[in-house]
Amino acid sequence: MTSAPAVSADRPALTSARLPSxxxxxxxxxxxxxxxxxGTMRIxxxxxxxxxxxxxxxxxxxxxxxxxxxxxxxxxxxxRDGDSRLxxxxxxxxxxxxxxxxxxxxxxxxxxxFADPVLPAAALENLLLLQxxxxxxxxxxxxxxxxxxxxxxxxxxxxxxxxLPLLRRARPKLLWVLIVALPLxxxxxxxxxxxxxxxxxxxxxxxxxxxxxxxxxxxxxxxELMRRGLWRGPGLTVATVIFLGTWVAAAQWIRAELWTxxxxxxxxxxxxxxxxxxxxNKRSPWRSRPLVWLGEVSxxxxxxxxxxxxxxxxxxxxxxxxxxxxxxxxxxxxxxxANLVLAGLLHRYVETxxxxxxxPRRPARPAPVPRQRTAESDATRPQTDAxRPQTDAxxxxxxxxxxxxxxxxx
Length: 410
What we know:
Elements: H1 20-40, H2 47-57, H3 63-78, H4 85-113, H5 120-127, H6 148-169, H7 172-192, H8 201-206, H9 209-227, H10 236-252, H11 256-279, H12 289-296, H13 298-316, H14 327-358, H15 375-380
Helix pairs in contact: 1-2, 1-3, 1-11, 1-12, 1-13, 3-6, 3-9, 3-11, 4-6, 4-13, 4-14, 6-9, 7-9, 7-11, 9-11, 10-11, 13-14
Domain Acyltransferase: 21-347
Protein name: Peptidoglycan/LPS O-acetylase OafA/YrhL
GO molecular function, one term: acyltransferase activity, transferring groups other than amino-acyl groups
């Protein structure tokens, strides 16, 4: 890996801090996706109750944006000189592929139970996490539908070690140009979709890995600015207010072409503000022990939740009909608890042990070079212990040890 440009003594690089708040925020993003799917599956038949779910989670699918931005941020933040590309790729595979393989097998078992047809070619694409490259309707959502995002992540992982040396050498002005340009490119995807066949436009804007990588690189560039001590953004309280205001406005009045871009910016501001709060040991509501545990299991929760809900609803005969009265919200709550239990088991008995068995250890971090202390450097110097960041989009993080792969993400 190539070293970054020198950082001035009064602006030290902020890389030696744990980021538990990002782990807690991962659960909020996973909950948004869960709520969106609970609403689109029409589990709640009572109009008044369903209106609440729709109002809260109508933009819940944008939680995947959070995962992609967070993945780029954490992987750049945690990258160490001396780490080989092969070792990086092995850790990424060890992180997400065991869970994917378990859900792949479980989905095929459910398909066999319900006598659903399975196209061998589509199944092979899904197994190899190549399905996001296939624009044919139904193919990119084949087998376990949510695994399309893992297909995108694999593309991001392939590219990052190749691009990181360039990112490390980039001048600050170029990084700030990218911070502005990437959201505009996300916006440009909407008029650009007119260049592809109408049947493939959803795939182009929402699934196609190079298009979705814009969010990943947005997080990556912000992390590089922050690690150099150059990031300028609002604090956590202000960033949260901006996000909530953007969410409400986007849900009520803003067209999809705009809210995808605006929410990407809002998510970035929350992620960087939460990371900065952890680095500087400032107050954050997102690093409580329960939220951190929920964030740790959020990757497994994301993978299991659609399969569990659709399978149970089909088995009970309630698929597409909904539950009347209070039973609708009760069923949604029951699904939430059931998916959390299964996610906890998957995280403990598959994800964690397989990461420890398959992932190579990370290179040791070099000892910090003493810097001249100034009033500003004292104010901005990290106050937390020198551990690694906790999360990225799929829940991947440092696999060098610790009690879990999340406590040390995607």
